[in-house]
């Protein structure tokens, strides 16, 4: 079985102090995808730079204290990549991939945007470039007999069932008609499957983000914007999808909750010496964090 979790930590240093460390120590996940780490590798808490038993890849943003993604894996990747073929976003800290012999797993932090502003225009440019990358990634998987899983904070609620107050957000970034059409094209034209929705087709949510403000969390007035997007053959092997919502407001260590999917899939691996740092910036066991 293969278990993969994704979560926007809303700052790795703050999350570590509030409960992320304990969560990582107990998660059954084989791969963990993180977004919005907001730290350089050497700014990670020491115990998270290269946790025992994990291989790490960190892709910080060139703008200090912003964005940043990371992947933790219990099995050594055979290759890693930071960014995709879009020069504008090469150092944005919004995308990274790790390869295994039969699977590519990616961590994505898509820009949030703000309707009618330059931030929204940037988001739309990212979406256009990333759509091309998703098609290329899928075709490469088809050609090589591998699978792809793109996890992360996509910052778009796809359907009315994915947002509690959908009527009040029709003109807001994250639920704009053009954003939702783009996500539909990801699921159609590029051939990916929304794993959580495929297993839970007829329910509201399960939401994965709630504002810190007001009673949003207590009232479960949330958004489902954290996705596992998989190639069809892998998606068909999904056996469970769970949003790990905190029991209480006080127990939250991020404004997002981890979304964890399990697949009837054996993750092929190749041996890599423990504690080594290879030329792709992957660490294992102990030592310093991956330097991207």
From TrEMBL:
Presence of the UniProt keyword Ribosomal protein in the record: no
Domain of life according to the entry: Bacteria
Keywords: Hydrolase, Magnesium, Metal-binding
CDD domains: Nape_like_AP-endo (cd10281)
A Pfam family reported for this protein in Swiss-Prot or TrEMBL: Exo_endo_phos
Xref: InterPro entries: AP_endonuc_1, Endo/exonu/phosph_ase_sf, Endo/exonuclease/phosphatase, ExoIII-like
Cofactor: Mg(2+)
Boundaries of every Endonuclease/exonuclease/phosphatase domain copy: 6-256
Family assignment from sequence similarity: Belongs to the DNA repair enzymes AP/ExoA family.
Record protein name field: Exodeoxyribonuclease III
Organism per entry: Catenulispora subtropica
Species lineage: Bacteria, Bacillati, Actinomycetota, Actinomycetes, Catenulisporales
């Amino acid at each position: 079985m293969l278990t993969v979790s994704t979560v926007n930590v809303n700052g790795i240093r703050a999350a570590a102090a509030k409960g992320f460390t304990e969560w990582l120590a107990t998660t059954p996940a084989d791969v963990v995808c993180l977004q919005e780490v907001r730290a350089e590798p050497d700014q990670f808490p020491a115990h998270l730079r290269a946790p025992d038993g994990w291989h790490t890849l960190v892709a910080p943003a060139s703008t200090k204290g912003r964005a940043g993604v990371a992947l933790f894996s219990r099995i050594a990747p055979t290759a890693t990549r930071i960014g995709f073929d879009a020069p504008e976003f090469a150092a944005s800290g919004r995308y990274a991939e790790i390869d295994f012999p039969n699977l590519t797993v990616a961590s994505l932090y898509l820009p949030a945007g703000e309707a009618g502003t330059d931030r929204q225009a940037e988001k739309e440019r990212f979406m256009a470039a990333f759509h091309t990358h998703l098609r290329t990634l899928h075709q490469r998987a088809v050609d090589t007999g591998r699978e792809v899983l793109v996890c992360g904070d996509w910052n778009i609620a796809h359907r009315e069932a994915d947002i509690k107050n959908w009527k009040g957000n029709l003109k807001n970034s994250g639920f704009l008609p053009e954003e939702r059409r783009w996500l539909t094209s990801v699921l159609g034209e590029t051939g990916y499957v929304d794993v959580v929705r495929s297993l839970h087709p007829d329910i509201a949510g399960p939401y994965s983000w709630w504002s810190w403000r007001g009673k949003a969390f207590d009232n479960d007035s949330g958004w489902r914007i954290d996705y596992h997007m998989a190639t069809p053959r892998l998606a068909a092997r999904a056996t469970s999808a769970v949003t790990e919502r905190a029991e209480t407001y006080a127990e939250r260590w991020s404004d997002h909750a981890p979304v964890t999917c399990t697949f009837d899939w054996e993750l092929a691996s190749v041996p890599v010496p423990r504690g080594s740092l290879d030329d792709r910036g992957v660490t294992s066991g102990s030592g310093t964090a991956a330097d991207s």
